[in-house]
Amino acid sequence: MSTDTAAKPVALITGASRGIGRAIAENLGRDHHILVGGTNAERVQAVVEALPSAEAFIADLGDAEAMKQAWEQTGLTRLDVLVHSAGLAWMRDVAEAPLSEWRQMFEINVFAVAELTRLTLPALRAARGEVITINSGSGYRSRGGSALYSGTKFALRAFTDALRDEERGTVRVTSIHPGQVDTDMQVALQESYGNANYDGGRYIAPESVADTVRLAIEMPAASMVEELAIRPVNP
Ligand SMILES: NC(=O)c1ccc[n+]([C@@H]2O[C@H](COP(=O)([O-])OP(=O)(O)OC[C@H]3O[C@@H](n4cnc5c(N)ncnc54)[C@H](OP(=O)(O)O)[C@@H]3O)[C@@H](O)[C@H]2O)c1
């Protein structure tokens, strides 16, 4: 654990070892104590050590028992911010997609989000906190190859719409929908499209997605960013 004060609001960020989640951890880490989520202990520890106040939250989100244990180990009874950034993405035509791939992607992109939210909801309610999901443009649109990924992100939007309604007045719920972001995930997707000339500068910087998270949490208490789309200028 690295810490400079015990009095900061607390944010749990999944997928904070890399990519968008890491940028969110660095941004919120300026004034929050951060629980850095990930599976890779070395990468998680490197993020923890770079932040003023942070600790590791290591769990494979596909393992419900590990996720429960990691949450119980925090001992937290109040949680100000829960950001769901961990996610999987690959393209596959329906004709080529085995049931195991549907299950794997829904497990991380949807079921783990639902379960971690359920576990943390009493602490979020106690803090009158907020839940932020990193959804996608694919949460609004589906096309050839995108049945799995868009399927999970449409389901995630259904989840956030319902949760927002249920917790209105207690916990704020924000769904952020980035277009292409310059991360490992985008590198792998472009490779799978056969794009040999990856140019990260064409895409949204992870730090820009982090700025939208900060915008949502800094809204005055009477207002809520329900959904926010951020797109590259020249996709
Ligand atoms: N990149 C884009 O273009 C883009 C666009 C729109 C939306 N999004 C969404 O943004 C979110 C973050 O994407 P990204 O681009 O930052 O992805 P990324 O660079 O691939 O990073 C994925 C993160 O998720 C974590 N993760 C993966 N599987 C996990 C598991 N089973 N248990 C726990 N953690 C796991 C990884 O942790 P470890 O490395 O420690 O395992 C890593 O921190 C995703 O939900 C994605 O769908 C991305």
Automatic annotation (TrEMBL):
SUPFAM superfamilies assigned to the protein according to its UniProt record, in alphabetical order: NAD(P)-binding Rossmann-fold domains
Q: Does the keyword Oxidoreductase apply?
A: yes
Alphabetically list the UniProt keywords. Oxidoreductase
UniProt entry tagged with the keyword Cell membrane: no
InterPro entries listed in its UniProt record: NAD(P)-bd_dom_sf, Sc_DH/Rdtase_CS, SDR_fam
- Enumerate the Gene3D superfamilies for this protein: NAD(P)-binding Rossmann-like Domain
Family, per entry: Belongs to the short-chain dehydrogenases/reductases (SDR) family.
Question: PANTHER family, from UniProt?
Answer: DEHYDROGENASE/REDUCTASE SDR FAMILY MEMBER 7B (PTHR44196), DEHYDROGENASE_REDUCTASE SDR FAMILY MEMBER 7B (PTHR44196:SF1)
Could you tell me what this protein is called? SDR family oxidoreductase
